Amino acid sequence: MFGKILIANRGEIAVRVLRACRELGIRTVAVHSTEDKDSAVVHLADQAVQIGPAPSRQSYLNAAAIVEAARATGAEAVHPGYGFLSENPDFAEVCEANGLTFIGPPPDVIATLGDKTAARAAMTAAGLPLLPGSVEPLNDAEGAARLADEIGYPVIIKAAAGGGGRGMSIVEDPVEFSRSYQQTRATAQTLFGDGRVYVERYLPSARHVEIQVLCDGYGNAVHLGERDCSVQRRHQKLVEETPAPGLPAELTARMGEAAVRGALATGYLGAGTFEFIVDTENNFYFMEVNCRIQVEHPVTEAVTGVDLITEQIRIAAGERLRLKQEDIRRGGVAIECRVNVEDPDRNFVPTPGRLEKFVPPGGPFVRVDTHGFAGYKVPAAYDSLLAKVIVWAPDREGAIRRMRRALAEFTIEGPGVHTTREFLDRVLRDPLFVEAKHDTGLVARILGD
Amino acid sequence: MSSSYRLPRAVHTGFDEHGEHEVIELHHGGLDDVLTSVQRTAADLLARSPHAPASLTVRAGVVAVEMTWAATPAPAAVAAAAASQTVPAAAPAAAIGTVLAASTVGVFYRSPSPGAAPFVKEGDQVVPGQQVAIIEAMKLMLPVEADKPGRVVEVLVKDGASVEFGQPLFRLAPIDS
For residue B162, which residues of chain A lie inside 8 Å, CB to CB? Predict the structure, then answer.
């Protein structure tokens, strides 16, 4: 096992990783920008190294500074959290070249799965179902339009290098295709420096369901069930839950088996998430793999009792997976709400600032993952996620009641600071959500967009 | 919130008994950290002050550091209220000026190669753009250049030590006109 781990991230996930390290008896190194020098993880860590100024490009994305910080402090492994360098194959490679263990999949696996067309090809080969569409990137507009006709409209054009809901457009009608195709290519080139796109069928009222997997370096893999992330605003998740309401257990078991098959076929290592789309007839299709721990991982932890970050660290240290598929027993229902510093009344504009009051909820079966504290100044330089509230209950109705109670307790006040707390309550009491008849269009309907 | 909670628990840099920086001396908890933080704060304040103050008091919780200066530029005494620990002042009155800080994490070198003469030494005058040190990051040798004219009064980091972003490397005094 490692003696010391460097946490190459900030915010709530840095604190989450630090807690896992503490429980494993591993010393921690926090790295931080000048903006984050008074942050929670810096207060909690055994050591801290300032790696750059506020802009992420010069600090949390600065691979050289992070590797130097690891070398100076004697850290043996790097946990990248999510976002930033977590799915960057070059960073994983630089870590390895400098004798550091990157806590995640090997660089070549990240590279393959990070490229959506390469991932589609790999999963087709592994026998996973895919939506009708192109496996290879499309290079000419005419060929792409012909393929779209074959697939049948509506179609979605996606950037091969895309992610996080960016670089995609839905095309309802053949006459729009050529313009959308050119536009998506241009957007993808701007956003990702890679203009390659592919086309697949678009399912308007589909559900996004993802499967958590864990793989060790000895050919063992398990899945820990699904998460439903259908409550989204502009492809950004707001509420996540497990199990996915209304999906037959037999279906999610088949999805889990497919995810394990795909993971083993690509030589995956550590914790990963397979995203699927499920249509109204309960057919499921592979979408993409996220080669990192995810924001919503605590709901899986709540129903399985498995500490995913601890498992990631053990696997990276070369330990064998101690869990077998039959050991994964899921019980009850868990929901997570993301409390962001954003103003829902002003189109969710971020509202950074100092938190004069910060009182997280407590009580039975309530977990809060946050880097916030009274007096903390939420910087404007980074994303707006301030806290994740996770609740567990034996059934979904109880979990919704518990979440509404917890959110009502959560006090966050500061000059100019707004949060999504009350908006989340509107989602939780929406009749479609309560009856689990919602899809990805729910938030837009609540907002009257 | 108590004032002690706001103090950094992981202290990035400290001073040894000679008043020099120990580099990335990262340690945890206790009165020593508080003292170190207070001393560092005092040194930073002095470095940014255009004139030498007659006295300076920095207080954090139960710890207070007072510095006073005699008329002659002799090292001033530092008294810590909460502990009977006396260290020389971080900077004599003559050293008031600016600090040149590290632009990246890496290893600090004073000379172009091992055994060679340092780029600059105490007392040297530097001009903007003049190379004064090297920081090695990921096997890249990055020159450290003076950003304004001045006279080197103190080299704050030992040759071959690790530095973090923003860490003071040199203390520069304005050039007498």
Answer: 68, 71-72
**Is A240 inside any structural domain?**
yes
Is residue A137 scored above 90 in pLDDT?
Answer: no
* Interface pTM, i.e. ipTM: 0.71
pLDDT digits (tens, 9 = 90+) for B93-131: 444 689 999 999 999 999 999 999 999 999 999 999 999
Q: Which of A68, A71, A100 to mutate to test the interface with B (most CBs of B within 10 A)?
A: A68
Residue A214 and residue A162 share a domain: no
pLDDT tens, position by position, A400-421 = 999 999 999 999 999 999 999 9
Interfacial B residues in 84-123 facing A (CB < 8 Å): 104-107
Domain hosting A274: range is: 207-447
Of A43, A53, A67, the CB nearest to B138: A67
Q: How far is CA B65 from the centre of its chain?
A: 17
pLDDT of residue A139: 83
The pLDDT tens digits of the residues spanning A255-265 come to: 999 999 999 99
Q: Is the pLDDT of residue B70 over 50?
A: no
In this structure, the answer to whether residues A320 and A389 fall within a common structural domain is yes
For residues A310 and B137, give the distance between their C-alpha atoms in angstroms, rounded to a whole number: 31
CATH code of the domain in which A192 resides: 3.30.1490.20
Confidence check: pLDDT of A46 > 90: yes
Residues A275 and A303 in one domain: yes
> Does a structural domain hold residue A293?
yes
* The pairing of beta strand A4-7 with beta strand A27-33: parallel
Residue position matching structure tokens 């560092």: B40
Identify whether A103 is part of a domain: no
The residue with greater pLDDT, B50 or B159, is B159
Q: Do A306 and A372 belong to one domain? A: yes
CA A449 to chain centre: 25
Domain end: A180, A201, A222, which one?
Answer: A201
3-state class (DSSP) for residue A79 = strand
- The answer for residues whose C-beta is within 8 angstroms of residue B127's C-beta and 6 or more apart is B146, B149
Number of domains in chain A: 3
Closest CA to A369 of A309, A291, A442, A440: A309
**Six-digit token pair at A57?**
């490009």
* Bridge partner list, B170: B100, B155
Q: Is residue A72 within 8 angstroms of chain B, CB to CB?
A: yes
| pLDDT range class, residue B72, cuts 50, 70, 90 | very low
The three-state secondary structure class of A290 is strand
